[in-house]
Amino acid sequence: MAIISCKSLTKQYGAKVLAVDKLDLDIEEGEVFGLLGPNGAGKTTTISMLCTLIHSTSGQASVAGFDIKKQPSKVRQNIGIVFQEPSVDDLLSGRENLELHGMLYGMKEQDRNARIGEMLELVGLTDRANDLVREYSGGMRRRLEIARGLMHRPKVLFLDEPTLGLDPQSRTHIWDYIRRLSKEHGTTMVLTTHYMEEADLLCNRIGIMDLGKIIALGTPRELKSKIGEDIVRLRGAVDADKIRKLKFVRKAAQEDGITTVALVDAPVNLQALLKVVGRVDSVEVREVTLNDVFLHYTGKEIHKEEGEGGWFERVARSGGNRA
Ligand SMILES: Nc1ncnc2c1ncn2[C@@H]1O[C@H](COP(=O)(O)OP(=O)(O)O)[C@@H](O)[C@H]1O
Ligand SMILES: [Mg+2]
């Protein structure tokens, strides 16, 4: 049975903004599920409803077997939340923050202390446990928030953009903890991110979200293989129609003297492709990314700064065959 189940879950803000649009989604126990999408896609709104922080407009959802509308306090007992707004207390030490949280959840002293030690160890803060949080770096705070979110042994941990604003090293640390949590504790996690790389690395399954809807759902590998597996860029005079006839080619598009080809298994098929193409000035091969997947479904890039040049967007405009 799914540990999280949404049926037609909807959130409307005012008359105009349909933030989450009839979302249907099941998440199984033990999954690390990623909601991936650009700013404004509806990711935070979705998990805020599931965490009972905001009311849904219509539809239903259950978390850990409890209905978000009818049994919100049961839902809250069974979840941990790591959201963007800093919520740990600056003037307390790391340990005191965890202690307070354990007390709020009615944990007995002995259990609480054992759990605090375990959680501090998990997020690598044992050495700094007695320092005030105001002396922590951004990455350490986020780690403390994760530890706190886990104190009461929730069945599901929700993380909203867990690495937003962190330096690369802290991001890598957070990724390690999330993976350890999943592997060693089997905690179900639902995280949102607009970093494709993050979703790809951490999540066993991803829902790509745009304009309040999940537009693609699957394992990272499944999502990418819908596009093809590799991208080959050819510079020079090339007949794109000939390329499209090859059975390992998923799509081909041309712009400014560059032909971009999405294909299956470039290491095996590149020679055959080049044979058909003839002479070219340059050849570049890379793997398909989740950004390509997003572009494929939406015609726009998930994250401009991190984009790969937006060629699928251009493909769309130049009339390439979008499946
Ligand atoms: N409290 C709110 N009032 C009105 N509109 C909101 C509110 N919160 C979010 N929105 C709007 O809902 C949409 C989805 O937002 P959000 O869930 O925060 O997206 P994401 O987390 O994917 O960036 C956006 O258009 C956003 O502007
Ligand atoms: Mg958000």
Structure commentary:
With 323 residues, this protein is of the alpha/beta class. It has 2 domains: 2-223, 3-Layer(aba) Sandwich (Rossmann fold); 228-317, Alpha-Beta Plaits, CATH 3.30.70. It is 36% helix and 28% strand. The strands form 3 sheets. It has a 6-stranded mixed sheet, with helices on both faces. The chain has a 4-stranded antiparallel sheet with strand order 2-1-4-5. α3 (94-104) crosses α4 (109-122), α4 crosses α5 and α11 (290-298) packs parallel to α12. The longest helix has 18 residues, at 168-185. The radius of gyration is 23 Å and the shape is elongated. The model is unreliable at 305-323 (pLDDT under 50). The site of magnesium ion has 5 residues, from α1.
List the main descriptive attributes of the protein structure presented here.
323 residues; 12 helices; four-stranded antiparallel β-sheet; binds adenosine-5'-diphosphate; elongated; Rossmann fold; six-stranded mixed β-sheet; Alpha-Beta Plaits; alpha/beta; binds magnesium ion
Sheet-strand content, in percent, reads 25-35%
Mean pLDDT over all positions: 90
Bound molecules: adenosine-5'-diphosphate, magnesium ion
Briefly note the CATH topology name of the largest domain: Rossmann fold
Q: CATH architecture of the largest domain, please?
A: 3-Layer(aba) Sandwich
Helix content: 25-40%
Please tell me how large the radius of gyration is.
23 Å
Span between termini: 33 Å
Oligomeric state of the chains present here: single chain
Give the uncertain stretches in residue-range form. 305-323
Largest sheet composition: 6 strands, mixed
Given the helix and strand composition, which structural class is it?
A: alpha/beta
Secondary-structure element pattern, one letter each: EEEHEEHEHHHEHEHEEHEHEEHEHH
**Globular, elongated, flat, extended or rod-shaped: what is the shape?**
elongated
Number of helices: 12
Would you report the number of β strands?
14
Biggest sheet strand order reads 6-7-8-3-9-10
The CATH superfamily of the largest domain bears the name P-loop containing nucleotide triphosphate hydrolases
Top-tier CATH class of the largest domain: Alpha Beta
Count of folded domains: 2
